[in-house]
Amino acid sequence: MKIKFNNIRDLADARYAAAVMADYIGFSIGDENELPTSTIQEIIGWCSGPEIILEVKNAAAIEKVKALLNILPVNGLEVSAQDHPAMKEAFSEQNLLWIIDAKMNGEDEFVKANPNAEAAEKIKETEPWGISMDCFESVSTGIKDFSDWNDFFEALEIL
What is the pLDDT of residue 82? Predict the structure, then answer.
């Protein structure tokens, strides 16, 4: 099963994703959750393992994505089906993974998961190709409570 962490907010998220051997970490581009490029660079510099996905929330962000592809080791783009044609044309020269409306390269689908016991049981029953999880803000500066995620991944026998 593939694991993707969406909307990485800080180094703690990325390190946690790497610790559970996530396949992908995503950074939001083109919306209010977008991190400064320097922050993304710093996070990527401290985290190894997962492939880097830019979650493009707005096709108008094409120029921003082009700039990021020149300075970040990006492996793929996540876009809506509506924005995919314009994005695909803009990046046809690039060898990128594509996640379109939660489907990897149009075939294998990620199921959105919340870190709780019920979701873990459903995932164990259905055995989806992949799961994606949204990261959350710190409760206070530099402090995050990963206990729900720990319980979730223990139930899935990943930790």
Answer: 94
- Closest to 97 measured CA to CA, from 112, 84, 86: 84
Positions of E strands within 9-70: 24-29, 51-56
Q: What is the rounded CA–CA span in Å between residue 120 and residue 153? A: 8
Q: Are 5 and 26 in contact (CB under 8 A)?
A: yes
Structural domain range at position 95: 2-155
Is 111 buried (19+), middle (13-18) or exposed (0-12) by CB count in 10 A?
A: middle
Q: Say if CB 22 and CB 156 are below 8 A apart.
A: no
Name residue, tokens 């149009």: 106
pLDDT of residue 126: 94
**What is the count of structural domains for the chain?**
1
148 to 20, 63, 99: CA distances (angstroms): 14, 37, 26
CA distance 132 to 89: 26
Task: Flag residues of the chain having pLDDT under 70.
Answer: 141-142
* CATH number of the domain residue 49 falls in: 3.20.20.70
Nearest to 97 by CA among 118, 117, 73: 73
Token reading at 9: 């907010």
Strands 130-134 and 2-6 come out as parallel
